[in-house]
Amino acid sequence: MNSSSKEAGRIEELRALLDRANRAYYVDASPIMSDPEFDRLLKELAELESRHPELDDPTSPTKRVGGEPIEGFRQIKHRLPMLSIDNTYDEQGLRDWYTRVSKGDGGLFGGDAAGPVVVCDPKIDGVALSVRYEDGTLVHAVTRGDGTTGDDVTHAARAIRAIPLSLAASGKNAPQIPKVLEVRGEVYMPAKEFERLNMQREEAGEELFMNPRNATAGTLKNLDPKVAGSRNLAFSAHGRGEVIVQKAGDSEAFAETFSQFLKNIRALGIPASPHSKLCKSADEAIEAIREFDTKRRTLSFATDGMVVRIDSFARQAELGLTSKSPRWVVAYKYPAERKTTKLIDVLHQVGKTGKITPRAVMEPVLIAGTMVQHATLHNYGRIKDAETETPDVRTDIRIGDTVYVEKAGEIIPQVVGVVLGERPKSSRTIAAPSKCPECSAVVEVEPPEAEESPALETVRRCMNPECPAQMREKLVWFAGRKQMDIEGLGEKTVDLIRASAIPLNSFADIFRLSEHRSELTELEGMGEKKVETLVAGIEAAKQRGLGRLLGSMGIRHVGDTTGKMLARVFPNLDALLAASQDQLMPRALKKDRAIELGFPAEPKDRPETGLGKDTAPAVHAYLHSSQARKMFEDLRKLGVSVESTDYRKPGAGTSPATGPFAGKTIVLTGTLENYERAQLAEILEGLGAKVSGSVSSKTNLVIAGDSAGSKLDKARELGITVWDEAQLQKALNKS
Description:
CATH topology of the largest domain: D-amino Acid Aminotransferase, Chain A, domain 1
CATH architecture of the largest domain: 2-Layer Sandwich
Structural class: alpha+beta
Helix content: 25-40%
Strand content: 15-25%
Number of helices: 24
Shape: globular
CATH superfamily of the largest domain: DNA ligase/mRNA capping enzyme
Largest sheet: 5 strands, mixed
Radius of gyration: 29 Å
Mean pLDDT: 82
CATH class of the largest domain: Alpha Beta
């Protein structure tokens, strides 16, 4: 055997050995080698691979820490949504949940006649991730995001040793690797790694991370995969996404229960918690929760509760979902640690949505492993004036008081009460700001929903969308694809420009960037080509129209949908500004008042603006504020169109009598390159089509994008016409 063949054999041997070492450490919790030995073998493998590029393998252990930094995050839509879980904070709440899910069971789903079998699984304090494998190979890892769409962080996930790059069945009864296997889990930072990282940052003079979860989120959000590779993040699977087995047609062919699912994915090399426990009753579940409360304090990672879920997937499907969360699972949260300290000041903090929150400054106190000096006071409605109100340990809070502090979910510090008996005579009441503390703009106070407390408020908000405290987030939002769609002005570029001498402090400044071409090209990573792309994107954005403009500005109560609705009713900005409060909410008007203003008597016949009697006054006040007037005037001068491209004359029909879409029932499936599904549905409905969510014999047309699934298969079975995006675009151009 020649030296080349020997080295090829050694490469395969090292890859297999290092993969076994990762599995032994992260899945089996039985290390087969020390960290220095692992690093030595990894270095040997890298040297051999550099001499044999023809043997390149994207799943090699050396590929975890390779690769160049990415330009920015792309978003991926979850095949199945990542829903939030309802919480309970006491044992009775857990019993009540168990009673609800037990109705009609009668022992059919693994338990006795009193209720079903459940699994108690530790709730790790980390960052939720959906990891997808196709034919056993990692294809992408996506954050939870809004539950429907998340950020693609595959570049970072590949650098996490606990996440296998490829699946391998291990053991006599190991399952077959599914065609598609999507696992949901938690990425987290062990305590020792968090301490090491903060010590390193302190020595370098960098700001310390507040807690392991923040450090984990910051690592995943770093565009350079080498950062994730340098921090020893861990991963633990705790849920199921999309599963498609090789032959059968449903996910339950891989596992019929959650406990079996965990066992099977462990056999394929994916780590899951060794602390999961099967329980046949609420009493057993509570006992498991009590036992783990003692054990969790000795673990190397943070937990704040236990997730309790029905074991049977069939029973889960029967119980279904509410509008926000599954009925078949609940998170039991352990009581938060509470300490007392002195409140020495209150800051008025303006968030990205303009919400002004009182933030406590306290004498430092150690809570749940971290030193706390700041905490939220929630809102000004909770801070009463003790001279006019009956003292209350929850809401009568003054500067100088001794206060109770705890961490909500052991993450966010909050002041939950005051020790009234220790109040000093020098204590001072906390005054809510009457103007924005950042820009002095008008402040809107939102009353609570409960009529029994009319004197309190829930939110105090700055109404200036160009407030400096909000502006960075608003600029990123304004330039986004669903808003003004300014190519070349992503989050990274906004931060780069704002860190330079080039002004970028208002929406108008975006449209002035073309005046700074030479300065832009001098910024790191920009260059002439990127600047040209940016300038072209800015010029194109000037013609997006009134609806897109309104929906992009971050106006309270006005998103993209309401922006379009207003643009359908008002032909231009001048007409909108001339409208009264009543004219902004025609659907809410009484019959006589509607007729007086020139609207039809019946609400269903009046134009929809998206505004009602509670929201119209706030929007009207903003549109007529000095800040808004100046902003609109600046945008006009810079050539930004304030004419509506969506305007519909009163009485004009909205559906064409003819055309390729008129009268057709259409189903959309898969991912389209140039259209969001909701956006395309609106366009097609405007052309006379009916857009349906399911394929049937009444369907006339299916439009299929990438990764189309069962809807496409059913359309082919029924012989329904199927278009790709190119055919769709051709028909839209004609229409």
